[in-house]
Each structure stands twice: as structure tokens, then as C-alpha cells.
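User: Hey, my collaborator sent me this sequence without any context and asked if I could get a structure. I don't really work with proteins. Can you help?
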Amino acid sequence: MSSSLDEDEATMPRQSGEALAGEGAELADWEQRLRAALAGSSEQQRELYLMELPPQLDELRKPEWLAALKPAAVLVPIVAREPEPTVLLTRRSELMRNHKGQIAFPGGRRDAADVSAVDNALREADEEIGLKREHVEIIGYLDDYPTGSLYRVTPVVGVVRELPELRLDAVEVAEAFEVPLSLLLDPSNYASKTFVRDGIELPFFEVRYGEYAIWGATAGMLRNLCRKVGGA
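Assistant: No problem. I've predicted the 3D structure and written it out in C-alpha cell form, which is a compact way to encode the shape of the chain:
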């Protein structure tokens, strides 16, 4: 379920991506599909993604609750590998206070110096895994994703033409790995599950890749990407 969300922020840099894609370069089919799915998303206009919640949590749909969410952003890096593109993910360090060992995108809360969601996401990617902004071509946004930790997370989608050697912040990131984009764009790979908190069943998605179980907010954002690109 989505609702409209407006923000008065800086415009998105490198919207067309000439600097990285190469002027006149023919885009691969997967990238054309991604760009078409994200067309119209911007720093000023995005949707707000809300999973179907049990009636006991109707208050989480109220405007006053949504307005109280703190801004954050993550980078969704699509690596343009041949013959198949991948999505770059991280496994959080066991040293982290929250969400230790979980699969995540590089990202975090917005700092005062961040002028936009793009700036937020690219700064965090640089700090966490050493992915410099000059290697990332921003092509759009997924729907903002509210979390139980009271953040409104903006997923910023970027294409990485050539993935440089990464430098992981060992305090925050245990490892970085790639998942085939095709696996994440297949809706049959997402399992709908629930967990119980305070006696209430809460829904979430899970998608598995080898030894990795991707679930929670990260899987929710990926499922939204799947839906936008054409998955059911």
C-alpha cells in the first residue's frame, strides 16, 4: 500500500547519467526496465510504502506518526556485471548494537550536513564499504520505507559500472556480497512470513540466496523493487 509523500529537497544529481553511462550508449534491457520503473521518482516526490498491517496497528498509518519518523537513506547499488547484473548487499557486523548480523544495504540516518537523500546514501556507502560517489550513477528512488525503529528510509537506486575494490568498515560491516538481480526480480523467491511482538503478528518478506537470509526492511525494499519492475 502506498501514499503520496512530498519533500522539499535538492534535485537528484546525474539523473540522466551521461557522465557514467557514456553519451549515446545503448542501455541493456535490465537497465531500461529499471529506469522505466523508477521514472518520475525524485527528491521532491516519492511514494510511501506501507505493508499490510494488522488492525491493532492502524495507528501506524496516521499522519502524525508518519510525520514523526526520522529521515534516513540507503543505497541500492546495481552492479552492471556481464552477463548478469547483481545487487550489492552487506552483512552487518556482530559488533553493532542493533540488527547485528543482518543483511542490509549500505546506509543510515541523515546527518545535518546531508543536503539530500542521495547525499545521505552516498556518504554512508563511502563510510561503510568505501564505495565512492564517482562510481555510482543515480537512476531513481524506491518508495520511502518506514521502520519500527522510527525511521523513514529512502532507498536510492544507483548503477555501478565498474565495482572498485571495497574497503569495509569492520566495526559496521562484516562482509559485502552480490546477489543476482534476476533472483531479486522474481516474486516467487519472496516468502511471506510473520513474527510475534507484544502478542501481535507482524508480516515481513524473506528471500534466500545460498547461505544468506535477506529479510525485514531490506527484503521489503527489494520486494518493492520487484513489484515496480514488473513482478506481481
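In plain terms: The chain is about 20% helix and 35% strand. You can pass these C-alpha cells on to your collaborator as they are.
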